[in-house]
Write a structure and sequence with these properties.
By secondary structure, this protein is mainly α. It has 13 helices and two strands, in the order H-H-E-E-H-H-H-H-H-H-H-H-H-H-H. It has a single domain, classed as MetI-like fold. 71% of the residues lie in helices and 2% in strands. It has a two-stranded antiparallel sheet. A hairpin with a 3-residue loop joins strand 1 (58-60) and strand 2.
Length: 304
């Protein structure tokens, strides 16, 4: 079959560079993307750049932030055991919340995918309903449930137990964050289940595979992308959460977000607050990218 590619003057075929469209051919696409890029730059890139610049400022209690290029704020945060504890608590809570959301949300999504309408729509609405309520309102609701005279301690009192100190504890923060973040785990896993052909499970069962083997060898590998995306969202949102740790953790159980708030509005030490915020962002990205790489390799290995 004759080639349809045009020949050059010397009879040879054009190279890849010769076939490439000129830059002005992509100009309409760049122009269409320009408003979105400008909005992204104004709302994300420029504030991040300003925060980065602010981390090098020096703080004077008498006059406030002073322009200076120094690394004293980084030395203070990275070399202080106080801030080490705050970051360990932040990522410990985020890891625990993510683990609980995976353990609860994955079976919940699987059961939801096996339901039929109208029950599926009803339960999906129940799962998504917390997203319609403000995080602050939900935090106050958990505060009323977990305080010394709340319904939880009253239930313990009926069986002769308690009262227990549940409010202003790590337990209260984790429980409330799981309640808030669970929809972000259920929806990606449920979406991944929609791509799973039920006949694959039936074929495995017809070949005498046990239901446990079907779940482990057929269903779970297909759920890995949904679990991965849901875990990344839950971990990132939990590590940067402010309202729930601030309201249910109190002044004693500080996390990185509440520490940033205290430095900005309490101590008015903006350079130190900006440094904590930037280090939280960098640490969050490192953990999430590492988790993504590890899980992606295991998923690729499981699929052969």
């Amino acid at each position: 079959m004759a080639s349809t590619l045009p020949a050059t003057d010397n009879g040879s075929r054009p190279s890849g560079d010769a076939r490439r469209a000129p830059w002005h051919a992509f100009l309409p696409l760049w122009l269409m993307c320009a408003p979105a890029f400008l909005l992204f730059a104004a709302l994300v890139l420029i504030p991040l750049a300003m925060t980065l610049v602010l981390t090098f400022y020096r703080f004077d209690p008498a006059s406030g932030p002073l322009a200076a290029f120094q690394f004293g704020n980084y030395v203070e945060v990275l070399g202080s055991a106080y801030f080490h504890t705050i970051f360990l608590r932040t990522f410990g809570i985020a890891f625990l919340v993510t683990l609980l959301c995976v353990a609860i949300g994955t079976p919940e999504a699987y059961v939801l995918s096996r339901m039929r309408d109208p029950y599926r729509s009803m339960f999906l609405l129940v799962i998504l309903a917390p997203l319609l309520v403000s995080v602050v309102v939900r935090a106050f609701g958990w505060s009323m449930l977990l305080n010394s005279n709340g319904l939880v301690n009253q239930a313990f009192g009926l069986v002769g137990l308690g009262p227990y100190k549940l409010e202003y504890t790590t337990f209260a923060i984790v429980i409330a964050l799981v309640h808030v973040m669970l929809p972000f785990m259920v929806i990606p896993v449920w979406t991944a289940l929609q791509k799973l052909d039920p006949q694959t499970e039936n074929a495995a069962l017809s070949l005498m595979a046990s239901p446990t083997t079907v779940l482990r060898r057929i269903v779970l590998p297909q759920l890995t992308p949904g679990i991965l995306s849901g875990s990344l969202m839950v971990f990132g949102l939990s590590a940067s959460a402010f309202a729930i740790p601030g309201l249910l953790g109190g002044r004693r159980l500080k996390v990185a977000a509440t520490a940033v708030y205290d430095e900005f509005l309490g101590s008015l030490n903006w350079p130190l607050g900006a440094t904590i915020a930037l280090l939280l962002l960098v640490a969050n990205l490192i953990v999430m990218l590492t988790y993504y790489r590890v899980l992606e390799r295991r998923y690729a290995r499981s699929l052969g």
